[in-house]
Amino acid sequence: PKPSADRPAAPRPAKAAAPKPTKVAKARSKLVLLGGGVVSLLAVAYGAGLLLNHSDVPKGTTVLGVDISGSRDEAVAKLQTAFGNRAATPLQLTVGGKPVELKPEKAGLSLDAQTTVRNAAGSDYNPVTVIGSLLGNERVADPVMPVDEEKLQVALQELAGTAGTVTEGTIKFDTGKAVAVPGKAGTTLDTGASAELVTKAFRDMVATGSAGAVELPVTTKEPAVNQAELDRAMKEFAEPAMSGIATVKAGPKSIPFGPKSLPKILSMQAVDGKLVEKYDLEALKAIYGNSFDGVLITRGTGEKTPVSPQDVAGALGKALRGKTTAERTVTIDTNPS
User: Fold this and answer.
1) Which fold has domain 227-331?
2) How far is the CA of 86 from the CAs of 99, 208, 215, 322, in angstroms?
């Protein structure tokens, strides 16, 4: 029923007082505030780290202990200053107890400063790394040291030829006749096993400045030119070559080559186990001198040029294989079709 005018309204219940915060609640509030502060501080530090690492190579980046942080050009310059001389230093090697040197560039060994810097450049957005850079933490980058395997094998083959004890069979031209000289077995460089040792020596040299003398392994080897090849070369070329006069003509002029002049220009060399003749072009030119002056050869391009030592050697090679006087006279074609 509605209250009458003379009936007082019922009193409203008293509002309950808010409970006082407990000690646990206060502690939780402090932790939340503290956590928020730490997050804010870390965010500020992260932002500052990103600004400091805005250069091409982030702050604190090192290669082999050298700080290269900064622009890419600066980083490349630092690498070249620190390691350029080391990377160019000849490696000290021994083959069968014989000391030899090997230049890294010739062996296809190098420190690629440009690629090293390219790999190390760019921002690192990892918060641990970015904030760590503010604290002086190191960011290690690997040096790039590529190996040209083909050049390395060629260089090792050359070492094998100079430092080994194998002697190849050959034919010498002396005292007006050809003389067969058999080869002898011996030791030679094991190029396959040596490649890894040489590569490691180079990388040690770049990293530390010293690689020490590295003993390369050797293996036993027979001469590539055997007795059968010596017999063939003697019969097919050396003996006919020294059997008499060989004449080369060009235009109206000619010059003879005989057992006395041939030893000055003629030798044989081993190529893949076969003996082939070799001509000393300077000695050849000295022998025929001005004999073919004024004689021109029409080349494949249509240009006319003087007779060259190569032209004379080509004709002489054919004449030396001849048996009759006619076969041992060869004319250089001055107008080949």
Assistant:
1) Ubiquitin-like (UB roll) (3.10.20)
2) 20, 9, 20, 57
Per-domain residue ranges of the chain: 227-331
Residue with tokens 């939780």: 28
Confidence (pTM): 0.59
In the predicted structure, residue 162 carries a pLDDT above the cut 90: no
pLDDT for 124: 52
92: left (phi over 0), alpha (psi -120 to 50) or beta: beta
**pLDDT per residue over 289-318, tens digit each?**
999 999 999 998 999 999 999 999 999 999
pLDDT band at 20 (very low <50, low <70, confident <90, very high): low
